[in-house]
Design a protein that fits this description.
Elements: H1 2-8, H2 47-53, H3 65-79, H4 84-93, H5 98-111, H6 116-131, H7 135-144, H8 149-156, H9 161-176, H10 183-196, H11 201-213, H12 217-224, H13 228-239
Helix pairs in contact: 3-5, 4-5, 6-8, 7-8, 9-11, 10-11, 11-12, 11-13
Length: 240
């Protein structure tokens, strides 16, 4: 009978130890929702719970301002190469102090993560080949991105006048395949297109004149009336 009564009352192999003396020493601690091992509301957690709970409020934040600055720079550089000035602007916009920004950027300079000279060379090559931009337009773009004048001049020196003139002519030939109108209208339109890409008037006029001279008789007659050399000389006088 004792065995059967024990089974009925739950005193089996998985039963909790019986209480002794009316106390709770033998009872497992029951927390919220009656789950053993969980602290009751208001009770301090044990050491392991405290250690694991430090990050429970949300994602961890950078330990200091320098770490935040590095993360901002790396996110910027993941999109495309950046100049030092571009990264400094991004850091200032995010509230990073100038002192910390200089420390981080100086370190990036040392290890070659940022290199304005390499950036400028790559920019000139890519934008000239891809968009047909001339040195004047490229110089303006480099200045807008914070590249200093000396570094920009060195990078632009790799784009010589011959290459620039050849690119201008290639742009005109490609545009002539679709442009229509009188020779005068076509001439103005193509010269304007080259001017917007930064080509000097002399280079632009000469490229369009040579292309029109090979198009047809009417265009060639119009081209004969254009004095590209005189325009180039006038341009040189203005630059002095």
């Amino acid at each position: 009978m004792a065995g059967r009564r024990g089974a009925r009352t739950g005193r089996g192999w998985d039963a909790a130890p019986a209480r002794s003396g009316g106390g709770e020493a033998g009872r497992p601690r029951r927390g919220r929702a009656g789950v053993p091992g969980q602290p009751r509301r208001g009770e301090p957690a044990d050491d392991q719970s405290r250690d694991e709970g430090d990050g429970s409020a949300g994602p961890s934040r950078p330990a200091d301002e320098a770490e935040r600055a590095r993360e901002i720079c790396l996110r910027q550089l993941a999109v495309r190469p950046r100049t030092r000035a571009e990264l400094a602007t991004a850091l200032a916009r995010k509230g990073i102090s100038a002192e910390v920004a200089d420390q981080v950027l100086d370190r990036y300079d040392e290890v070659g993560i940022i290199d304005d000279a390499a950036f400028a060379r790559a920019w000139v090559s890519s934008r000239h080949q891809g968009r047909g931009l001339a040195r004047r337009a490229l110089a303006n773009e480099l200045r807008q991105r914070g590249v200093d004048a000396e570094t920009a001049t060195e990078a632009l020196g790799e784009l010589d006048e011959t290459t620039e003139a050849e690119t201008a002519r290639a742009l005109v030939d490609r545009k002539l395949r679709s442009v229509t109108g009188t020779p005068d209208a076509v001439f103005r339109r193509l010269v304007g297109m080259l001017a917007r890409k930064g080509y000097p008037p002399g280079v632009a006029v000469r490229a369009v004149k040579d292309a029109l001279a090979e198009r047809d008789a009417e265009a060639a007659e119009f081209a004969d009336q254009i004095d590209a050399d005189a325009l180039a000389e006038a341009e040189a006088e203005l630059d002095r």
